[in-house]
Each structure stands twice: as C-alpha cells, then as structure tokens.
Fold each of these.
Amino acid sequence: MNTLTKIKTRKCFHISSLVGILFSLAVNPFLWFPPKVQAQTDIYCRLSPEAIAEKENLRQAVLGGDKDAEKQYQDIHIQHSRAVGNCRLRNWPRNQGIWLRIYPCDARPGEIDRILDKIVNQGYNQVYIEAFYDGQVLLPAANNPTVWPSVLRVPGYENVDLLADSLRKAKERGLRAYGWVFTMNFGYTYSQLPNRQQALARNGRGQTTLEVIPDNVSLHNQLGASHAFHTFVDPYSPEARQDYSVMVNEVLKRQPQGVLFDYVRYLRGVGSDSVADGVKDLWIYGEASRNVLLQRAKNEAGKELIRRFLDKGYVTSGDIYAVSSRGTPKWQNFFSLSPNGDKLPKGGSGRQVWELSVAHAAQGILDFLQLATQPVKQKGLSTGAVFFPGGNRRVRNNGFDSRLQPWDQFPTSMEWHPMSYGACGDRDPSCIVSKVERVVSMASDGVKIIPAIAGVWGEPFKNRPSLEIQMQAIRRATPQINGISHFSYGWQNIEETRERKSCRL
C-alpha cells in the first residue's frame, strides 16, 4: 500500500468514526457527558446508593443556583429513567406504580423534584397523582372553574399549578403519570353548597352519607384524616354529573397519560350496616335516582308497586293484589349485581322488586363511570377503575355488600385496579392473594389487572407482610399478572409526609 492510499484509508476511517459519533449523539445527546456514577439496579429495579446520592447532590446544587448543575441534573434523569426502564423489561413486574397525594407544602422549591426522584430511585415506572380528593382539587386557585376549592389556597400561590408541575416532572423522569380522582365521593365541601343538596345520595330514612355512622378508616386516610367528612352523591343527579365533568376536563388539560377513578361505589356502613338487606339501606332515595327507578316500570302497576316498596320498605300480598287491578306489574329487564349476571325476572313479588332496586343502585354506578371516563377515552388515554374485590358480593340470602360495587361489570377496556389490602399477618399474604385470585377468576380474557397492595419495603407493616413477600406470593399464584402498584408514598415515608402536611409555606 503506497503512502497516498494509506492517507486516504486513514481519512475514510476518521470520517467513518466521526459519523458514528455524530449518529450516537443524535440518538442520545447526553452520551457525551455521562454522569460520574453509572446507574445500577437490583432485582426490584431500585437504584444504587451511589447513584441516588449523586442525583440528590445535583438537586441541591440546582436549588442553590448552580447553573452548570441544571444540565447534569437533567442528564441524570435520563440515565436513571433508562436504567429503571431496562430493568423493568427484564424483571417482574413489567409495570410498578405508586400512589401519591400532593400537599400545599409541595409548592416549596425543589420539593416535587425530590419526591419524584425518590419514586424513581425505588424502581417505579408509574405514578398515580391524586388530583381530586376529600372535596378539593389540585388546580391553581386562580384557574379553578370547578365547584370545589383548590388544595393550595395560600395567598401568593394562586397561580401555582401543582398538578401540571407534578405530571410534567414525572414524565421528564420517565414515569408514566396518571391523574387519580375520587368518583362518587365528592367530599364535605360539596355537601355544604346550598344549591347541591338535591345531588346528594340519600337512603330510605332521608339521610345523606354525612348523617350516618362514618365509613371505616380507609387506607386513603392513612395519616389520620377522618372519613366523617366524605360525602357521596346520587349517581343519577344531572348536577353531580355536570360538576364532575368540569373537574375531569380540567384534569385532562394538565395532560396526564391516563386517569384512575376511585370510590366508584357507595358508602360502606359499619357493623350490621355493612350489609344492605332492605331497600331503605340503599342510596337510591335522591330525587333523580328515585325518579329513574320509577321510570323503569313498564306499566302503571309496576310503577305503583315500586312506589309502595320505596315508601314502606316492603310490599305485602295485599299491595300486589291492589296494583294487579291495573295489570301485571312489569319493569325493565336488565342485569343485576349478581356476579353471574343473571337477569332480573319481570314479575311482581317483593323479592323481585327488591332485586330490581339493587340492580338500579348498581346501574347508577356503572352509568356514572361511563360518563366520567368518556372525555378521557376521547383523548385516547388510559382509564382505570379502582375497586374492592369484595365490593360486589352477595351476603347471605337476601343481602349485598353495602358498597354495591359492580366491578365485574366494569368495561373490559379499562385497567382494573383491585385494592388487595388484606391484613392477615406479618408473614402471611394468603388473604391478599385470595383477593387477587377472585378478580382474576371473574375477569374476561384480556382485561389488564393491576393489583394495588399496601405496605412498605423490607418489613411488615400494620399486620401485612413486606411488599416483597406480597409481590412474590401474587406472582406465584397469578403469573399472568404483570403490573402491580403500592399504596402508598405516604405509607413508605410516614414522618416525611406528616411534615409535608403540616409545614407552613
């Protein structure tokens, strides 16, 4: 090879190398300035302490005004996102989410960044950010067209959009970010609106949910909030439906990648009231719900029998005989709450009108959910329903779980998020697994089931095994499941969350 040939060969090699480098930079512009510590993950996709410390140091530097650190902080987000994402592709479960409630103090500089960094550090690739809860919305006070007050109501922070900021920063870290909203639980503030009293759910004694014994302490209020202020609405109420639609559309403007609907049910009573075994136990005495139930009659005899049943709580053979002078009582034939989907008979016995009333109550939940999810689906985004696996059970011969949650009839196009929160012992996950198995056994093929489990990493908590033990047991029992979520960030960081709730801006 002569000298000229060698020069041309070297020149071609250098050009080829340069083209390769430029192509790599085009694909990943951050390869040129790698972080000092390459992110490593364990089998649960948690990042190494060294990588976590480097990222936190950069966050602190950015807070201190270091402009050079800003670019490095962005770069490390990309590297950690890829490390967790690649790990999730190799390890079970493919998707691992966590439930996150945002507080006013999270408006402090760098606070949302810190929280979301911790979530990525723990190997999560999804986050469910609570956008509507306890009668307040995570919208800026200066731009809140809903009937609910904003979570952040501190003077000087009127334009801070915690929901938009949380969703954006989550996505920057590679987290799939959902909005998480209460559904039929509109909160205490709604119950205080003078022009919304007709929208509240009422039982046969004329009570709203505020006027009965409050629900059992819920995991959603794990840090001491009271359920005594939860208010459920009549799902047939046009006013409630319109108010809810406004809220959902405002959440969608902040561009979540999906919306999860919680409290898709009625209030659960305590003790004997946890079972609905009489029509006056049902939350169908609101004006709209009662009217729709009467309209389900197909003739005057059917309407009169339903009216007597609602008013007295029962019907006698004398009632049936009296209305039969107008013909055989008839009403619509639609699916009941029964998990096997039996259709209601059309006759006029007391048992049949009771089954009709229960089915009507459950249908209200299904109708409300369908309307609530419509704008989300129109945008092509994911929807999910959060439910209790036992919320649709029959109890003994004539009763039903008072939540009347017909989750087995939820749309199969939605994600199903069963709250598998059993507390069966520090080392025993069997009651948790049984809840997941019940849902799997009743779900149609193709339904995406993502169980929500409660606890903390590495140790038992509140009579539940560690998250690791629960997850391993679920995987063994139901290997077809490939997504799971953890309730909640607050449970995993109790002291920190107490401080976030109580601090002053």
Amino acid sequence: MRLLILNIFLFLSVLGFGQVDKMEWFDDAKLGIFIHYGVYSVNGIDESWSFFNNYISHEDYMDQLKKFNGEKYDATQWASLIKKSGAQYAVLTSKHHDGVALWDSEVGSLKTNKDYVAPFVSAIRNEGLKVGIYYSILDWSHPDYDVYKRNKKRYNIKEDPARWENFTTFNHGQIKELSDRFNPDLWWFDGDWEHSAAEWKAPEIKSLIQSKNPNAIINSRLTNQGDYDTPEQGVPLTSPENNHWELCLTSNDSWGYQPNDKNYKTTNQVIRILVDCIQMGGNLLLDIGPKPDGTIPEEQVEILEGVGRWMNKHKGDVYDMQKGIPPGYYYGATALSRDSTILYLFLDYNPNEEIVIKGLENEVNRVWVVGNGTKLRHRVMSRPYWSNKPGLLYIDVPDDVLDKDVTVLALLLDGKIKLE
C-alpha cells in the first residue's frame, strides 16, 4: 500500500500537481549567489552590451576569447565560499548575450577553451547546494539571429522564417544539451524582450526542460513560462504579486568583473537588503564577477564571508522564516515562523531604549535574541478597562546583545499570530 501511495504521488508530481512542493526549497533558501563569468572579464568591460551599444567592435570584443584561460579557476573553492556565505543555491552564466558558451558544447562552435560549467555543477552539488544555470535565449553573435547591434539587424524574421527556424533549432539544441548533461535544479533565462513567446517557442523550451526534470524551476524571463519573478537591482517597496521571487543584485555596480568599479556595497548594506527580501517573502540573489583567471575579487570574498557570518549565526531560524506582518505594527522588518507562532523582529540600529510593537493581540510567552538565546525583558502597557484594543508591547534590548549588523529577536506567541 505504501508503494502504491508513493507511485501515485510521483505520478501527480509529473502531471504538475507537485508545483507547490517543487518551490519549497527555493522559498526556504533566502540567499543565492549569481556568478557572471565570461570573456568580458579580460578587458573588464560590460558583458555583451559593450559591442551591442557600439562601445567596442564585435571583433575587438571577441578578441578577449583568446586571452580567457581561467588558469586559476577552482570550482571547489567557489563552492566552498558559496556554502560559507549561507547561500542555498548558485547560478552560473553558461552563455550570455554574446553567445560564448562556457561549456564544451557540441551544438555551437563559439565557446571557451575549456569547460567551466561541468566542474561548477559538480562542486556545487558536492556542497549539498542547488544548481542554477543562466542561459541567454538571445544571441547577438549567432549568424542566424536577427538582431546584431542596437542599430543593426541581420534580417527580418518574417521575411526569412527559415533562417529564424535555424536559430531556434540551435537555441533549443543548446538548452537540451545543458539539460541532458547537467540537469539544473533552476533555469535562469534572460534576453526574452526581443521576441514574443511564440517566436522563441517558449512553451516548447519549458516542455523540453520538464521532460527531463519535472521539478526544475524556471525564472520569469522565459516569456510567460516562469515559476518565479526576478526584480533586478532595485529593492521592491512592496511584495511582488508572485509569491515566489528573488531580487538579483550586484555587489558593486557591475555584473561581471570590472577592476575600475570599486563602488562595493558594505556587508551591512547587503544584509539589510537581504532582510528586506526575507520580510517580503523573497530571496536575494547576490552577484559576484570572478576575474579572468577564475579568482574572486577580495572585496567580494569579504562580502560573502560577512554575510555568511550573519546567516550562520541565525541559521536555526532564518531558513524557516516566512513573510512578515504588514508595516505599522513595528518600525522595522519582520518575519514569521512557518506555523505563525513566532514573530521575528529585525533591528538594524541601536535603539538606546525599549522597542515597541502595536496591535498584537496575542500573549507573548517569551522573547529572546536569535543566535545566542538571551532572554529579554518585555512588558505590556495595558489600555483602560473600557477599551478592547490590545496594549503596547515594550521590549528592553541591552547593548550587549546587539549584532554588529542586524539583531534578530524572536517572540514566542500563545498561538498563531493575531493582529488588530
């Protein structure tokens, strides 16, 4: 009987009834690492956009391929650092808009001198993390792709549909190759803005992926086929409509390695942005750009290690946190436990006095500091007997319990949270 039930469950999952379950690891992840690695790192210029916007000729851009050798590339070191950061998944650019494949593709001829994707996938999985593959569905270098540069097209696809068919065959061939060889847990598509879903044959791409792995997660940039949204750079002011989402964010101002870009975010800033994502029920996908030799810039290592300190201090709770309560009840970010019986408060400043929560109808059984377990004094300022409004809850937070970046407090409630 148990075997029969298991088979029925697997069958329903393949049919799509396992949609909620397949997103569970993603929703719990909280942090992922984005890696933009490619030939553009040689000159430290904008990936793909440099020649598209005519800042550099296509020939000069591709000349970087001769010097891109990754002599110090060590996927094991990458994976170890990513694990240390507290991230639960990592996404590598297998091919950007420039069309240069970072794996030993048998479908296309434009590729690096060695396979960077295979060692990455193996190392990430060895650390127990989920594997994400970035793939640009547009390809400004492919001779059968219609767009070449911002002000130049190779042809019109309506006038030469056979040529466009050649490109989509190539495109789907590379995606199938990545699927068959690496079977990613997550697909991070990009570049869908230049054509419609029908022109990309986006439903066919999704079907191709799911025939290999029904539980593979797809981002929103495979036109209308995605499982989760991907806002970019700007922190959302309110929760996105899709319950599943991640903010993709650079650690400085550039996706790939640019040695002149020293405008790095501080570790504290990154953690506070991560907290913003957690309170709205999303993830942070933090980007790094390795140098052409495969090493990761020291500034980025420092950020990942700093975020890892904070994540690992709170890991007993942070991965289980769900979307917080609406604003107005507490002047800061919040989160809830899975069963909504623990309210988490994030404190990114030194209050110098008691903090306050309004409109909480529950009794609070205990308040403690997450990460060290210190129990905190709390008291309720009651309303007059003739008022049915909940009282104000005050919590005393001594200086010696404060985290150097963001302090996390936990309030154990007498049941599921109830707010006025």
